[in-house]
Amino acid sequence: MAPVGMFRTTVDGRYLMANPKLAELAGYSSPDALMADVTDIGRQLFINPARRTALVAEVQASHGWIRGEQTYRRKDGSIFHGLLSIQAVRDDHGRILYLEGYIEDLTTVRQVEESLEEERSRFRMLVDHSPLGVALIDADGRYRYVNPAFTRIFGYALNDVPTGRVWFRKAYPDPDARREAIDAWKEEYTLAGPGKVRPHVFSVTRKDGQNRTIHFRSVATEGGQQIITYEDVTDRVQAEAALAVSEARYRSVVEQSPMGIVIWEETSGGVLMANPMFSLMIGVRREELDRFSFWDMVSPSEREELRSALTREKSGSGIPFTRVLTGLRRRPGPFRFEATLSFTRFHDQPAVQAMVRDVTESEQAARWAQHQQKMEAVGTLANGVAHEFNNILMAIRGYSQLLAGLLSDHPQATRLIDKINDNTHRAAGLTEKMLSFSRLEEGERTPLDLNHMLQQVAANLANLLPDTIRLDLEPAERLPMVVANRSQIEQV
Q1: Is the pLDDT of residue 440 over 50?
Q2: Tens digit of each residue's pLDDT (9 = 90 or more) over 175-198
Q3: How far is CA 131 from the centre of its chain?
Q4: Element (H, E) at 144
Q5: How many Å apart are CA 16 and CA 89, to the nearest integer?
Q6: How far is C-alpha 476 from the chain's CA centre?
């Protein structure tokens, strides 16, 4: 079958001959079917009948071939495109006998062209509306195209930067910066070669004089053209720099905090982050903490209560709350700590954060202060009792002295009065001890032989000890005398 549809027709539009290819193009099963059915070519096959009328007139006026693209309608109504070549065949007198010619099917070509045009339009629309600046540069350095975003980013239109040389002068007004940028472009182009994307970040001067940080991505074609995209990353770079500063400050605060800071995974308790102070508190090196669970660091008797508190707080207000707990550490042993706990997210996973303060010493100090308050209360009571008791002793001593004067000639009464005086002296010593305990009176200081006083105390103590306990006393030789309050020494 011939690759083109061949025909002969009358001037008024009837087929005299048609080959199978023409019948196929027109949607008929055979040339006979085509010639039988089509009696007016202009009306039945041409999309625009007037076009054939004009074409016939042109052929009649010409003595050669007429060529042109035409649009036809098939038998089923579908459209096809064909390249028509037609001429008039004349007799010896110049009269037209018939028209002859052929049609090349352009349907596939036209579809490809239309598809390409559609893709070209779609690509142009994408580029024109792209948020990234786009430029196409010829191999000789001339800018062939810049999109609206390019103008929006830099302030320059295509006529402002006709060549790369002009662009570099405008974008880098400082000669040193310009030379550095050009050298970087050349080096990257040499290393990357055609088809490889070459990313780079430069500081560029806009038309209005502003300096902007631009992320360039360029690629060279085999023909030497360059396609470059431009993204203004100034705000992002500034935000990243500010974030880096903020993170550095936060890290510095966390690392140097006098309080322990720890973050653990909410479900498993695995330690996700801890600062040096927390590591110091529990006696575990920081590089070892990721092998521990926070729950390993809490006394077993307090774990369930803390778990329940965390569950309640999360289902409730979720605000930070404080607990005082007993912690476990390698050395020197258990300690008490106050933890302010809150819920957070760490690396996009639910976590719990604790601000930890060691309260072991403060609790001990509080207990000692409480003990001191109790002792002060006892001392105050002892002081009051001692004074009252001393008043009674003074009365007894006075009356015994009066009796001694009245009964001086009765030896037996005198002995009894002396015993009363001896006991009042002993009671006075007890009063002095009570006053010394209360710390409200310093008491009298006298020279004391510590060995002798120790022997007296041991003798009194021996009477109080059970038979199963033996008290051995080893006095030091040649111990010097000391000046002290006897009652206070005996308390020691």
Answers
A1: no
A2: 999 999 888 888 877 776 777 888
A3: 27
A4: strand 143-146
A5: 13
A6: 73
pLDDT value of residue 438: 61
The residue with tokens 């575990």 is 284
Q: What is the mean pLDDT of residues 19-46?
A: 95
How far, rounded to the nearest angstrom, does the alpha carbon of residue 1 sit from its chain's CA centroid? Answer: 72
Q: Report d(CA 289, CA 163) in Å as an integer.
A: 61
481/447 Cα distance (integer angstroms): 6
In this structure, are residues 466 and 460 in contact, taking their beta carbons and an 8 Å threshold?
Answer: no
Structure-token pair, residue 214? 């631009």
Angle in degrees, CA 390, 391, 394, rounded to 5: 85
Q: Phi first, then psi: give them for residue 454, nearest 5 degrees.
A: -65, -35
What's the pLDDT score for residue 233? 93
Q: Is 440 exposed, middle or buried (0-12, 13-18, 19+ CB in 10 A)?
A: middle
Site of tokens 């476990």: 328
The Cα–Cα gap between 52 and 15 comes to 14
Neighbours of 438 (CB within 10 A): 20
**Model confidence at 490, in pLDDT bands (50, 70, 90)?**
low
What b/e sequence results for 324-363 when a residue is b if at least 16 CB atoms lie within 10 Å of its CB, and e otherwise?
A: ebebbeeeeeebbbbbebeeeeeeeeebbbbbbbbbeeee
The DSSP output letter for 160 is G
How far apart CA 69 and CA 82 sit, in angstroms, is 6
Prediction pTM value: 0.49
- Across the beta sheet with 5-9, the strand order is 15-18, 5-9, 96-105, 79-90, 66-73
Q: Which strand (E) or helix (H) includes residue 448? A: strand 446-448
Strand partners, 171: none
Q: Report the Cα 99 to chain-centroid distance in Å.
A: 81
> Beta 260-265 vs 335-346: how paired, if at all?
unpaired
Question: With 60 as the cut, is the pLDDT of residue 370 above it?
Answer: yes
Measured torsion, CA atoms of residues 152, 157, 161, 162, in degrees rounded to the nearest 10: 140
Say whether the peptide bond before residue 148 is cis (omega within 30 degrees of 0).
no
Opening angle at CA 167, ends 160 and 139, nearest 5: 105
Contacts of 249 (CB under 8 A, 6+ apart): none
Amino acid 345 reads R
- Which of 457, 452, 448 minimizes the C-alpha distance to 486? 448
User: Phi and psi for 447 in degrees, rounded to 5?
Assistant: -65, 135
Identify the three-state secondary structure at position 220. strand
Tell me if 277 sits within 8 A of 270, measured CB to CB: no
- Indicate the pairing of strand 96-105 with strand 79-90: antiparallel
- 123 residue type, one letter: F
Closest residue by Cα to residue 293 from 318, 265, 259: 265
Average pLDDT over residues 224-242: 91
Which two structure tokens, joined as six digits, stand for 268? Answer: 């498993």
Residue type, 220: A
